[in-house]
Write a structure and sequence with these properties.
The chain is an all-alpha fold. The protein has two helices and no strands. Helix 1 packs antiparallel against helix 2.
Length: about 55
C-alpha cells in the first residue's frame, strides 16, 4: 500500500476521528468540556503529525 498516495485520505480520517470525539464530548456528554477540547486537538495534532511522518 503506497501511503504517499493516501496521505490526503489519512488526514481526512484523523479529522473525522477528532470530530467524533468532539461530538461525543459536547453532544453526548461523555467527557467534560475541557477534556473534550484537549482530546480533540490532541487527536488532530498527533494524528496529523503521525500521518506526515509515516506517509512521507
Amino acid at each position: 500500500m503506497d501511503l504517499k498516495k493516501r496521505k490526503k485520505a489519512l488526514h481526512g480520517l484523523v479529522g473525522a476521528i477528532g470530530v467524533v470525539i468532539a461530538v461525543a464530548g459536547f453532544v453526548g456528554g461523555m467527557f467534560t468540556v475541557p477534556t473534550t477540547i484537549v482530546l480533540t486537538f490532541a487527536v488532530w495534532a498527533i494524528g496529523a503529525t503521525l500521518v506526515n511522518l509515516i506517509a512521507s
